[in-house]
Specification:
Radius of gyration of chain B: 33 Å
Distance between the termini of chain A: 32 Å
CATH class of the largest domain in chain A: Alpha Beta
Number of strands of chain B: 22
CATH architecture of the largest domain in chain A: 3-Layer(aba) Sandwich
CATH architecture of one domain in chain B: Sandwich
Strand content of chain A: 5-15%
Number of domains of chain A: 2
Structural class of chain B: alpha+beta
Largest interface: A-B, 116 and 117 residues
Oligomer: heterodimer
Low-confidence stretches of chain A: 1-36
Radius of gyration of chain A: 23 Å
Helix content of chain B: 40-55%
Largest sheet of chain A: 9 strands, mixed
Helix content of chain A: 25-40%
CATH class of one domain in chain B: Mainly Beta
Mean pLDDT of chain A: 88
CATH topology of the largest domain in chain A: Alkaline Phosphatase, subunit A
CATH topology of one domain in chain B: Jelly Rolls
Shape of chain A: globular
Distance between the termini of chain B: 51 Å
Strand content of chain B: 5-15%
Mean pLDDT of chain B: 89
Chain lengths: 471, 887
């Protein structure tokens, strides 16, 4: 893409590349932008829910059964290597704290850590051979989220918005639902649009009657004053547009105010969960104080997708270094930490999968369930002990996807006997991202944005689509 | 995925792709071209010649109101007053315009406006980014320096050199240090794990940020693309990259104490005097103390024989009775009943160490009321960043047990010792760090657990001027690190006490001077008492004078360290070190890339040579890049539309000859930027109207040939500043610490920033002075494309979204400002004698848009004001396209 095009596109409001684009482009009398308006090829998925586990889920305790690790429990790792783990303590090997069972028709093993998700095993496509390039939370998390270890790069949601635009013109393309216990490290930088135009930034939906900031006036304004004010503004802006010789910006501003008014209706409507049936609420775990906070976010995610949002990102976990922990960062005690964290999300995520399926959404929706890295098969303790905690493991870990375009009920790739390092078909985040874009109908090598001397991609100069998981 | 690609993915900050071969136009020497004849201003001559070639004509001149609004926003970021518009409209001559331009360029607001543009390029942010994202409370000195330098029209070559090596070039000028804030304005990871390779890689990433910023800011070259491989499109080799890495290898992030030479001299004199007075007081007291001791010799109390370098008795405050390590009470910490009281939130932090500290003993008498407490530090020595430390810690790894705490437990052992049982009286605790690296913990003078020598980490040296002592906090930035309890006394030794000394000290107990202050005073003779009283008055007086001397300021800037050897790294991989390279420049840039330095040259020499190599008049990139940045801010698009990339991936100049002429002119004008501003804004090209012409648009849709002045939307800062200004609520204070429109809160060792609506005192200043952490921004700023300062932003995005409309229509700041504007208008009209609706509406228009309402606007505007009040109209006008657009 040429920078000229980029600057021209900057004027468009956010729906310019979605289905709402046609009207606006007509209004502006311009050609469609060079790239990003429509998918590069027929998409399998039109929208994404991304469940992001902050802190590092233990794969050997959840989706990657390692009988050999059980046998070697209490033995030393016997490696001369100084592994890149965070605290540097290599304790004795530690068996899984949960029992694995074959689940469903597929027989895909899932541990008892996630009893409800286990029931959805036939819907899951597990990748057991993920690798990360950092064993340090924030760089690893940024890498997962943007393909780079630093802030300032667009997040996957922003790229999806950039590549596909919104389906709706009265809701943003990319919505973020943080863990009610706190923001992930980096705060808003996490869902930033980086160098992509600001319209692709994640919009945080909170709870209450103003789910989006500045949705309504900060002071009391009567309905009539609001309507009269808008009317005068429209008149002034139309006159100005007419005087200015049909520049794009005045026209785009008029349209933005129209859409803003529509948002004031659509946002509260989508955020209002009270119209959902009791059965649905229960399915998401809203009837239980442990599962309700994450359940509400899962239910809201489904409602957002139904109304045309492209990408909803849900965080499970707040700031990383809490005491007690409010994330999956089980340095001290995997059993206690993962039991508590899984209890919050297991039922809601499983319920969401069931609900998406029964509503027929699963056929063109992708659900991602990822974490920045796994946890070590050895304990984080003195070399002669089996401590209760596990350190960060960047060498091999598990994530799963579900939904459109995937082979369900399979496990792809593997780690070694004890679950330490990826063995078969190692998958880097760039490969994961390339696959995600592929399922959305986008070629990761063609989805670029010129910034500061470089044609930037989500996948940098890497990435290969993981063919083995595609249907 | 390929294995090698995987590796590169890990190491690459950014990578480069493009389709064309290098052309290298930007590397050709700057030659002053002949100016086409027929027009007075060379800018117009070149632009007209080009337009004529395409059969295009410039637009008619803008009307005086439009022009004044344009030039005011461009040069100062603020709108003109209605009175200034009237005056110019009455006398719209060239001479009047030139005078206005001179006034605007001379106003302090010029530097504020253009500093904002520069800070975008410098990726200036006021927090570290990454996991902890700690604020940088002393970063603003750099921002203020930029404002001052631009206002003083500092020649651009000097401006550049100062930012690379000001601390070396101007060692006696505090500005020298402040300017180097440029190098370290980017993100910096303070959370490092135990793995050496990972940490060295993180350091390489950090250097890449500095190298990329220098390369793009001053040279328009993406040299960072050559970290892993030779640049694919521009003539930059990997060796070029690592020569720059060597030149910048000593650059580190951190605070530096900066003092003005004059203040330093005064302080020295006062300190010497103060010491002399203190010595005389001590002599009088010592004599009296000896007499008391002689009288009470039979009672036999051991004296404090161990001579700590610092001793905190916490009698009245956290003063160091022996040395200069006086502590400051932070958070809820307080001194009462002769003890330091710690509530689990507060702590004490001392001044930096006066001398390096290697072997050491930490000794403390404390009460631990809650034996279930976990992880608090009683007494700590830590580095200035808090990332490395040694600490007396309670119950962190084993409940109830004492341990020698350290970063990542590097020097920590889970001691085989009994858990603490005493919660109601003083316990004596000490940790001895011996020169042989061994560490021994003592409790009540007896060894506590086993002496141990850490395998992975030797004895730490804490540096003078950097490291400090903490009480009640394990280390700065640590989670769960505060101690709850009381400290009676603490001592720090710069040697390892022996077991015998330790037992003796424990037996002697705190306050081991053995003679109370009261007893000493009672013993004084009347003469001694008079003399002492006089000296005490003088001491107090000197202390007050010392306090009034401007102290060393903490400045976030380049901290110079000895650079390690720089190797070329194959594929950028820290584990694949190839040959050592010596600091030098980029070969393709005209001029000698060799700096004539040795491999082990100090950081100072390297940066000076780099600065000189960059800011040479015969470096064609240096002048071209800055001239283009100026042009871009005046016209919205540069003569080259990729302002930080003049390589093969970047744009080509729309007017090559004009571009060269401007670059030559800048050099001729001794790099004075204001001369170039003047040249540009006085041109007819700049002064033409902005109406779109559909015929011309067919030939040149993007108006790169300048057949009109393209309207530009105000950037986020200018929107907020304009609203503040016209509503009469702007606080024009120039410089100083930032105002905060975010709530800064710590959560588990991480700092978060939450925008707040309610303006507090001091928040109504220009947006330049806003505390700008990496993370959240207010809705108004964010939706108007104010970037997160994590990356360089040589050119802002301009987007128009519904969220932007919602922010400007609904945000508290805008609604409050609408109220204030209405009040101001009413007051103005009252003064002028008429407060009827027409007058009020007219004044509101003139303040916001700089004009009276048009005939078709007047009636509905008056109707709205009458029905819903003047603030309703003010709100509409703030939201109008005309308000946020400069035509």
């Amino acid at each position: 893409m040429l920078p000229f095009d980029a600057s021209r596109r900057d004027f468009f409001s956010w729906s310019a590349r979605g289905l709402g684009a046609a009207a606006l482009l007509h209004l502006l009398g311009r050609d469609a932008p060079a790239a990003g308006v429509k998918p590069h090829f027929e998409p399998k998925a039109k929208r994404v829910i991304h469940v992001c586990l902050i802190g590092g889920l233990s794969h050997v305790d959840s989706f990657d059964p390692k009988p050999e690790l059980g046998k070697k429990h209490g033995q030393s790792l016997n490696s001369k290597e100084t592994p890149d783990i965070f605290f540097g303590q290599v304790g004795r090997l530690r068996q899984a704290d949960w029992t694995f069972k074959s689940r469903g028709k597929s027989g895909l093993p899932v541990s008892d850590l996630f009893p409800h998700l286990a029931e959805r095993a036939d819907d899951l496509t597990v990748i057991r051979s993920m690798t990360a390039d950092s064993a340090n939370h924030t760089p690893a998390f940024y890498l997962q989220n943007s393909g780079f270890q630093f802030s300032g790069f667009p997040s996957v949601g922003a790229w999806a918005s950039y590549g596909l635009g919104a389906e709706a013109d009265d809701l943003p393309a990319y919505v973020v639902l943080p863990d009610p216990r706190g923001l992930p490290n980096g705060g808003a930088a996490t869902w930033g649009s980086g160098f992509l135009p600001g319209e692709h930034q994640g919009v945080v939906f909170g709870t209450g009657d103003k789910p989006v900031r500045d949705l309504f006036p900060a002071a009391k304004v009567s309905k009539e004053a609001e309507a009269d004010g808008r009317e005068l503004l429209r008149l002034l802006n139309e006159r100005h547009r007419d005087r200015s010789g049909d520049d794009p910006l005045p026209a785009a501003r008029l349209r933005a105010y129209e859409l803003a008014a529509k948002m004031q209706l659509s946002v509260p409507a989508v955020a209002d969960l009270s119209k959902e049936t009791a059965d649905t609420s229960k399915l998401y775990g809203l009837d239980d104080t442990t599962t309700a906070p994450f359940g509400r976010n899962c239910l809201l995610a489904r409602r957002l997708l139904e109304r045309g949002v492209r990408f909803v990102q849900l965080f499970s976990g707040g700031p990383i270094a809490g005491s007690p922990r409010v994330s999956w960062d089980a340095h001290e005690d995997v059993t206690a930490n993962h039991t508590a964290e899984a209890a919050r999300i297991d039922r809601p995520v499983a319920g969401m999968l069931a609900d998406l399926k029964q509503r027929g959404l699963m056929k063109d929706t992708l659900v991602l369930f990822t974490t920045e890295f796994g946890r070590t098969p050895f304990a984080q303790s003195a070399a002669d002990q089996v401590g209760a905690g596990r350190d960060h493991n960047k060498y091999g870990f598990s994530v799963w996807l579900a939904g459109a375009g995937l082979k369900p009920g399979i496990a792809y790739g593997s780690t070694d006997d004890i679950g330490w390092k990826a063995a078969e078909n190692p998958v880097a985040w760039h490969d994961f991202h390339a696959t995600l874009l592929h399922l959305l109908g986008l070629d990761h090598e063609k989805l670029t944005h010129y910034h500061n001397g470089i044609h930037r991609r989500l996948t940098n100069v890497h990435g290969e689509v993981i063919r083995g998981i595609l249907a | 995925m390929r294995r090698d690609a995987l590796l590169v993915a890990l190491l690459t900050f950014g990578t480069c792709t493009a389709a064309e071969p290098a052309e290298g136009w930007a590397l050709r020497p700057v030659k002053r071209p002949e100016v086409p004849k027929g027009t007075a201003n060379p800018v117009d001559a070149f632009v007209l010649a080009r337009l004529e070639k395409e059969g295009l004509k410039p637009a008619p001149p803008a009307d005086p109101r439009t022009l004044l609004r344009r030039v005011s926003f461009d040069l100062t970021g603020l709108p003109p007053s209605p009175e200034a518009i009237d005056a110019f409209a009455k006398n719209p001559t060239d001479a009047a315009y030139a005078r206005i331009v001179d006034d605007l360029l001379a106003s302090p607001q010029y530097g504020e406006r253009w500093a904002r543009h520069w800070l975008d390029v410098a990726r200036y942010g006021e927090s570290d980014g990454f996991e902890r994202n700690a604020p940088r409370p002393h970063a603003w000195h750099y921002r203020d320096w930029v404002v001052r330098a631009l206002n003083a029209d500092m020649p651009y070559d000097r401006f550049a050199k100062m930012q690379i090596a000001g601390d070396v070039l101007h060692p006696n000028d505090p500005d020298g240090v402040k300017a180097t804030g440029f190098l370290v304005a980017g993100i910096h990871n303070t959370v490092l794990g135990a793995n050496k390779i990972a940490n060295e890689t993180a350091r390489q990433d950090e250097l890449e940020d500095v190298i990329a910023t220098i390369g793009q800011t001053f040279l328009g070259l993406t040299v960072q693309c050559a970290r892993c491989h030779d640049h694919k499109f521009d003539p930059v080799s990997q060796a070029d990259y690592y020569r720059l890495a060597a030149a910048l290898g000593g650059v580190n992030h951190g605070d530096r104490a900066v003092t003005s030479p004059a203040a330093e001299a005064t302080r020295k004199k006062l300190t010497a005097e103060s010491a002399e007075v203190a010595g005389r007081i001590a002599a009088i007291e010592a004599a009296a103390r000896d007499r008391v001791r002689a009288k009470t010799a039979g009672e036999k109390r051991p004296a404090m024989a161990n001579s700590p370098i610092a001793r905190w008795a916490f009698t009245r405050d956290a003063a160091d009775e022996n040395g200069k390590l006086t502590g400051e009470l932070v958070g809820g910490a307080k001194v009462e009943r002769g003890r330091l009281i710690l509530d689990g939130k507060g702590h004490v932090r001392t001044a930096p160490l006066a001398a390096d500290l290697t072997a050491k003993t930490l000794e403390v008498w404390a009460v631990v009321p809650d034996l279930t407490h976990r992880g608090g530090g009683l007494m700590t020595v830590e580095t200035g960043t808090g990332t490395e430390f040694d600490s007396v810690v309670f119950g962190e790894r084993q409940p109830g047990k004492w341990m020698a705490g350290s970063e990542f437990y590097r020097r920590t052992l889970d001691l085989k010792a009994t858990a603490e049982t005493v919660s109601d009286k003083l316990i004596h605790l000490a940790i001895v760090y011996a020169a042989d690296g061994s560490i021994a913990v003592y409790r009540d003078g007896q060894p506590y657990g086993e002496r141990h020598t850490p395998k992975d980490s030797g004895l730490r040296t804490y540096k003078a001027g950097d490291a400090r002592v903490l009480f009640g906090l394990r280390h700065t930035g640590g989670g769960n690190a505060h101690f709850r309890g009381e400290i009676e006394e603490a001592r720090l030794y710069d040697r390892a006490l022996s077991a015998t000394e330790m037992a003796a000290s424990a037996a002697a107990g705190p306050d081991a001077t053995g003679v109370s202050d009261a007893a000493v005073i009672a013993e004084l003779t009347p003469t001694e008492k008079t003399e002492r009283d006089g000296l005490l008055v003088r001491k107090k007086d000197l202390a007050a004078k010392l306090a009034a001397v401007p102290g060393p300021e903490q400045v976030f800037a380049t901290v110079s360290k000895t650079p390690p050897p720089t190797h070329i790294l194959a594929r950028g991989n820290i584990e694949k070190k190839r040959q050592v390279v010596i600091a030098g420049g980029v070969e393709c840039v005209p001029g000698d890339p060799k700096f004539g330095l040795k491999a082990e040259a100090p950081d100072a020499d390297r940066r000076v040579k780099l600065a000189e190599w960059i800011a040479r008049p015969d470096n064609p990139l240096f002048a071209r890049v800055i001239v283009n940045r100026l042009w871009q801010q005046h016209f919205g698009v540069g003569l080259v539309d990729t302002p930080s990339d003049f390589g093969a991936n970047g744009g080509k100049p729309s007017h090559p000859e004009l571009f060269d002429w401007l670059a030559a002119e800048l050099i001729e004008q001794k790099f004075r930027l204001k001369a170039i501003h003047r040249q540009i804004v006085l041109s007819a090209t700049y002064r033409q109207g902005s109406r779109r012409d559909s015929t011309a648009a067919k030939i040149d849709a993007d108006n790169r040939l300048l057949w009109r002045k393209t309207p530009t939307r105000l950037d986020a800062e200018a929107v907020r500043d304009a609203i503040l200004d016209v509503s009469g609520r702007m606080d024009r204070t120039v410089g100083g610490p930032p105002f905060h429109d975010v709530k800064t809160y710590g959560d588990s060792g991480t700092t978060f920033y939450q925008p707040i609506d309610e303006p507090k005192t001091g928040t109504l200043r220009r947006t330049l002075y806003r505390f700008s952490p990496r993370g959240e921004r207010s809705a108004v700023l964010e939706t108007f494309d104010c970037p997160d300062p994590s990356a360089q932003t040589p050119r802002r995005q301009v987007t128009t979204t519904p969220l932007q409309a919602l922010a400007l229509w609904n945000d508290k700041f805008v609604l409050d400002s609408a109220d204030r504007l209405a009040e101001r208008v009413t007051a103005d009209c009252r003064k002028a004698g008429s407060t009827d609706t027409a007058a009020l509406v007219g004044r509101t228009y003139r303040l916001t848009l700089g004009r009276d309402p048009h005939a078709d606007e007047r009636k509905p505007s008056e109707a709205l004001a009458e029905k819903h009040g003047l603030p309703a109209l003010a709100r509409v006008l703030f939201n109008s396209t005309e308000f946020v657009l400069v035509e």
